[in-house]
Structures are given as structure tokens and as C-alpha cells.
């Protein structure tokens, strides 16, 4: 079941949180619209000023409402805020840019939700998604603002974030033989910016849903076994070594091998096992709700798992 996250209004004097598990999401234009985006821009400005910043990093996925929301968001910013605009990039790219430029990051996306949804995801200057304290502070400022008039555009600097992002990843990777035939299903989303990167690594890439299109004509942006049947068939038909299928904003993948769909918990456990086998460091850190199969696999490799109970705070 897909969980949709909304900005909920005050009900009988009780304010319901506007943040869900991954930012703010809602229907366009009923819940997420120009007025709402302009107010989000104003709140972001106040946070930047409070913590001594001068700029924000801004990016989007491919949703059809992105340009409208982006313009409105920028119009709510104070004119002394410098906007570093990375265009359409995967959410992890925006997070890295936030850390690199030591700026608040705002990603306009509704991730894997249907095309008539959109929203905002926020990163602190360490490149970490907002902790609950930051979300609470954001909401208090949001509720204190009543009317937002559109302002003159602040300075906007367009930056090729995908080039910086892929270079950083290449520097992290060990030298490996990438002579594999893969199916790369980009979901018509932000991951469409990554096709050339895979080719540069040496993969023989068979592209699927490679055209940026926020109506997601190829398949649902949620990469599940049921939505990836055509991708699974393509992997088998072309005798590919494996397939990679992204979600709408490129921060999550599903893997497919020659036998079919590989559940997330299984390939995470395999990666953890492999790293423990290769490295002297036998510690693996996960969040509390990660599958217990990781414990079994890591223990088999002579390691143990630590739990991350909460994210790092901004302050």
C-alpha cells in the first residue's frame, strides 16, 4: 500500500504535522500549489538567515508541476538569498550538493507517488534530511506567516550538479570490471540523468523509460515487483546480467536478476555480507526497521550490526 503524505490543516485547534516520513507531499493543486510553494520559500529564507547562510540548493524531479512550484518557491525567497539551481537531478545528488556548498537543500518531488502529487524535501547544510527538530521549527515558522507577497527574483546560479555528483561517485568506487550487460529502467524520472554515467563506467546499457516525462508513461514511479513486469521480461529476453529500476526521484532502486525481482532486504543483506567479507571493518549500521536477514548474513561474514536510532541534528 502506498502512503500519501499531506499538509493537514488545523483541526479543532490541533495542528497536524505537515511532514511525513520523507518531506511534505500532497495533491496538486488542491494541497500543493503556488500559494503554498511561495510560503515554503519564505520559511526557507528565514531558516537560512537564522543559521547564517546565504544560499540554498534547489532541484526537481521530472513532474509536470515542478516548474510552476519552482517559480512560486523562488518568488517567496528573500532577494538576498542566492539560489543554486541544479535543475532535474536525483534526490541524492541534491543532498550531496547541499553538503558540498554547505547550504540548505530543497528538492521538489513526490518521490514514487503518482504524477498528480508533488511536494518538498529538505536537507540541512550537512546534506542530511531534516531531523524532527528542524521539521518542528519549520512548521512553527510556517504557521506564523499569514500572507506572502511575491518578491523580486533573487540571484539564480545554474550549476551542472549531475557532473559533480557522478565524479564524486567515480572517486568512491574501486576499480572493478564493469563488463556487464544491464537493463537500466529510469522510470521517466530524475534518474534519466544517469544513463551516460553507467555507460562511462563500462556497462553495456539497455535503456528503458529513459525520456524525462513527469506523467510517467512507461510505468508507475514506484518500483515494485508488480510494476516492473515489463522490466523483468526485458532482462530475461535480452539475457542481461541484471537490471536496475529507479523510482521517480532516483533515490531508491529495485534489482532484477536472471530469475526475476530481487527483494530489497535480500540485496541489502548481500551487499552487507560482501562488504564484511572484503573489509577488515566488520561493522554494519542500519536503521531500526531494516530486515533481520541482514543480521544473519553479516554474522555469517564474521561481523555485527549496529542500529542508527536517529539522524544527526542540524545544530
Task: Show the helix and strand layout.
Layout: E1 10-11, E2 14-15, E3 24-27, H1 34-50, E4 55-60, H2 66-75, E5 82-88, H3 91-101, E6 104-108, E7 117-123, H4 132-144, E8 156-158, H5 161-172, E9 181-185, H6 195-200, E10 204-208, H7 229-237, E11 242-246, E12 253-257, E13 260-262, H8 264-278, E14 283-287, H9 293-300, E15 304-308
Parallel strand pairs: 4-5, 4-6, 5-8, 9-10, 9-11, 14-15
Antiparallel strand pairs: 1-2, 3-7, 6-7, 11-12, 12-13
Notes on the structure:
- By secondary structure, the protein is an alpha/beta fold.
- The protein folds into 3 domains: 154 residues, 3-Layer(aba) Sandwich (Alpha-D-Glucose-1,6-Bisphosphate, Chain A, domain 3), CATH 3.40.120.10; 90 residues, Alpha-D-Glucose-1,6-Bisphosphate, Chain A, domain 3, CATH 3.40.120.10; 40 residues, no CATH class.
- 32% of the residues lie in helices and 22% in strands.
- The chain has a 6-stranded mixed β-sheet with strand order 3-7-6-4-5-8, with helices on both faces.
- Strand 14, helix 9 and strand 15 form a beta-alpha-beta unit.
- Helix 1 crosses helix 2, helix 3 packs across helix 5 and helix 8 packs parallel to helix 9.
- The N terminus is likely disordered.
Amino acid at each position: 500500500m502506498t502512503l500519501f503524505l499531506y499538509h493537514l490543516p488545523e483541526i479543532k485547534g490541533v495542528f497536524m504535522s505537515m511532514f511525513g516520513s520523507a518531506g511534505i507531499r500532497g495533491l496538486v493543486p488542491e494541497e500543493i500549489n503556488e500559494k503554498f510553494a511561495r510560503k515554503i520559500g519564505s520559511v526557507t529564507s528565514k531558516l537560512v538567515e537564522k543559521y547564517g547562510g546565504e544560499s540554498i540548493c534547489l532541484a526537481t524531479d521530472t513532474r509536470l508541476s515542478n516548474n510552476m512550484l519552482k517559480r512560486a518557491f523562488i518568488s517567496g525567497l528573500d532577494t538576498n538569498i542566492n539560489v543554486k539551481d541544479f535543475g532535474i537531478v536525483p534526490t541524492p545528488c541534491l543532498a550531496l550538493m547541499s553538503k558540498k556548498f554547505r547550504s540548505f537543500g530543497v528538492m521538489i518531488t513526490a518521490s514514487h507517488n503518482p504524477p498528480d502529487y508533488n511536494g518538498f524535501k529538505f536537507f540541512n547544510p550537512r546534506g542530511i534530511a531534516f531531523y524532527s527538530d528542524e521539521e518542528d521549527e519549520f512548521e512553527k515558522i510556517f504557521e506564523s506567516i499569514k500572507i506572502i507577497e511575491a518578491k523580486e527574483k533573487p540571484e539564480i546560479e545554474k550549476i551542472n550538479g549531475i557532473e559533480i555528483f557522478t565524479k564524486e561517485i567515480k572517486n568512491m568506487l574501486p576499480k572493478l570490471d564493469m563488463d556487464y550487460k544491464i537493463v537500466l529502467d529510469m522510470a521517466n524520472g530524475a534518474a534519466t540523468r544517469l544513463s551516460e554515467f553507467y555507460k562511462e563506467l563500462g556497462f553495456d546499457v539497455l535503456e528503458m523509460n529513459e525520456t524525462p516525462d513527469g506523467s510517467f508513461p512507461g510505468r508507475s514511479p514506484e518500483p515494485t515487483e508488480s510494476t516492473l513486469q515489463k522490466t523483468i521480461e526485458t532482462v530475461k529476453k535480452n539475457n542481461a546480467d541484471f537490471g536496475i529500476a529507479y523510482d521517480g526521484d532516483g533515490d531508491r532502486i529495485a534489482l532484477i536478476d536472471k530469475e526475476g525481482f530481487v527483494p530489497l532486504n535480500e540485496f541489502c543483506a548481500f551487499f552487507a555480507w560482501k562488504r564484511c567479507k572484503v573489509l577488515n571493518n566488520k561493522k554494519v549500521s542500519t536503521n531500526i526497521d531494516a530486515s533481520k536477514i541482514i543480521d544473519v548474513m553479516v554474522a555469517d561474514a564474521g561481523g555485527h550490526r549496529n542500529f542508527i536510532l536517529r539522524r544527526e541534528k542540524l545544530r
